[in-house]
Amino acid sequence: MKTISKILNKALKEGRKYLLEPEAKTVCMEYEIPVTNFKLAKEEAEAVKFAEDIGFPVVLKIVSPDIIHKSDVGGVIVGLKTEKEVRDAYKKILGNVKKHKTNAKIVGVLVQEMAPASTEVIVGAMKDPQFGPALMFGLGGVFVEVLKDVTFRVAPITEDEAREMITEVKAYPLLKGYRSMPPADIETIVQILLNTSRLVMEHQEIKELDLNPIMVYEKGAKTVDARIILE
Ligand code: ADP
Ligand code: MG
User: Fold this and answer.
1) Do 192 and 159 touch, CB atoms closer than 8 A?
2) What is the arithmetic mean of pLDDT over 170-176?
3) 25, 40, 59: which to mutate for ligand 1, most atoms within 8 A of CB?
4) How far is the CA of 148 from the centre of ligand 2 (A)?
5) With helix as H, strand as E and coil as C, how does 135-175 read?
6) Most CB contacts within 10 A, which of 45, 61, 128, 143?
7) What is the C-alpha to C-alpha distance for residues 152 and 136, in angstroms, rounded to an integer?
8) pLDDT category, 145, cuts 50, 70, 90?
């Protein structure tokens, strides 16, 4: 809990309403929400070392308070398999960001494990002025963006409600496995929903939270991107 307060206070002191990805993922970890391994590199050589520690392939991402949608500015490069690819991607990302926003403040470059592709789900939370925190669940990509196949509950939710959320989206059958996709670990999704519910109930400073996407495997899951917006 102290870790989270420290992160939130630091953001507020710096006048930020968004947590940086490593901060948001650290908050998630405090509530046992599974995230990809990550390390924040401050220079190229460090990025190489972290990539070797984490294990190839890795993903590199810009960490900047001035950049919220990282891939929009060429700030995310996935599938890096060698030291050279990491070095090139490091330079490329900083170049891309500079081109897009000359004076963007750069905190560093996040090196993270590459989560294997799988069924993607999204878990969100947002504060309703009348009902307080509410939770959202859906399958990722076109299901949420095009079909708006999502479901909501007012927090806190019970385990039964978490299960209902999962089974009531139209895309639910996909979680039971299709074509080459193995069945998804529903129990892990239930736990993520319950832990997210606890997180937003216990930290009313959080205005919005977005775990998008979460890769769900036959066993376990990994949050690939986490966004948290403060009041
Ligand atoms: P943005 O700020 O643009 O939303 P993301 O962190 O979501 O940046 O990265 C963009 C996309 O890159 C993700 O939606 C996902 O498809 C892919 N990606 C990012 N990180 C990883 C990772 N660790 N493993 C696998 N894919 C990733
Ligand atoms: Mg994203």
Assistant:
1) no
2) 93
3) 59
4) 17
5) EEEEECCHHHHCCCCEEEEECCCCHHHHHHHHHHCCCHHHH
6) 61
7) 5
8) confident
- Report residue 88 as tokens: 């090139």
DSSP three-state, residue 110: strand
**Rounded distance, CA 210 to CA 136, Å?**
9
Q: How far is the CA of 175 from the centre of ligand 1 (A)?
A: 21
Residues with CB under 6 A from ligand 1: 36, 59, 61, 69-71, 76, 78, 112, 114-115, 213, 224-225
Stretch 126-134: mean pLDDT? 93
Burial 134-151 (b: 16+ CB within 10 A, else e): bbbbbbbbebbeeeebbb
pLDDT of 1 reads 65
pLDDT class for 8, splitting at 50, 70, 90? Answer: very high
Is 90 exceeded by the pLDDT of residue 143? Answer: no
Round to whole Å and give the CA distance between 59 and 50. 11
